[in-house]
Amino acid sequence: MKAVQPAQDDRTLQRPARPRLLTLPEQIAEQLAQEIVDQTLKPGERLKEVALCGQFRVSRAPIREALRLLESRGLVQIASRRGVRVTQLSAQEVDDLYEIRASLLGLAARRVALRRDGQFLAAASALVQRLRQFASHPAYGRYFDATYALSNLIAQAAGSPRLAALVFSFSQQVARYTRLSLQAVERRRKSLQLWERLARAIEARQPDAAEAAMRDLVFGSRDRVRATLKKAGDLRVVD
């Protein structure tokens, strides 16, 4: 099997901690999910079982289970006779996913502000500093990594494993589109301002302000995603 790369840089904070080792299908699903988020596997691209068996040096059984896991996360679509393809969001789906994400992360930000944990503040401060470092940098993927890590850090620090799991379940579905929307320097600078506003609200223990800042972040991302994908002709407008 192709070796699964260990987490690097900000990715160690991107996912809620797992209490067990991943099964083989889960390892394959994680690697394919990362390739989808990174746009190595693009929306609409077909995934062929035979090719994946060769890539990971495994039989079809773990590949099929991995693909079912990706389908449950909304990252691929499995259709009889048409095979497996990376999903492509419609305008309505973009709105739905980001509205749900705004509600979940808004609640998480509110809870984090009420808790105001010192360990969280230190970790968040380090990640906000990384945002400042890459806000105007050509490597927009590094900026995205930090925002993704921050979002999941907030979900983990809210004190509810169920809430964290829900946030993560939507994270990968929107991550590839959010990453694409952060290519523009002006969008990253605006995003940085909102993250700094959120950090100040949490440090000041202002739950209403923290929730509002997080919702503004998510909806700002949604609007940019729609504009970016429409411009590229990659968004199926069905509404």
- Tally of distinct domains: 2
Given the C-alpha coordinates, what overall shape results? Answer: globular
Q: Given the helix and strand composition, which structural class is it?
A: mainly alpha
Tell me the number of strands: 3
Report low-confidence residues grouped into runs of 5 or more.
1-18
* Proportion in helices: 55-70%
Major sheet description = 3 strands, antiparallel
What would CATH call the homologous superfamily of the largest domain?
A: GntR ligand-binding domain-like
Strand-residue fraction? under 5%
Give the termini separation: 43 Å
CATH topology of the largest domain: Four Helix Bundle (Hemerythrin (Met), subunit A)
Average pLDDT, to the nearest integer? 87
State the helix count.
9
- Element order, helices and strands? HEHHEEHHHHHH
Please give the radius of gyration in angstroms: 18 Å
The CATH architecture term of the largest domain is Up-down Bundle
> CATH class of the largest domain, anyone?
Mainly Alpha
Q: Strands across the major sheet, in which order?
A: 1-3-2
Q: Please, could you describe this protein's structure?
A:
The chain has 239 residues and is mainly alpha-helical. It folds into two domains: 21-86, Arc Repressor Mutant, subunit A (Orthogonal Bundle); 91-232, Up-down Bundle (Four Helix Bundle (Hemerythrin (Met), subunit A)), CATH 1.20.120.530. The chain has helices at 24-37, 49-56, 60-72, 91-115, 118-134, 140-157, 161-181, 185-203, 207-232, and strands at 46-47, 76-79, 83-86. Strands 1-3-2 form a three-stranded antiparallel beta sheet. Strand 2 and strand 3 form a beta hairpin. Residues 1-18 have low confidence and may be disordered.
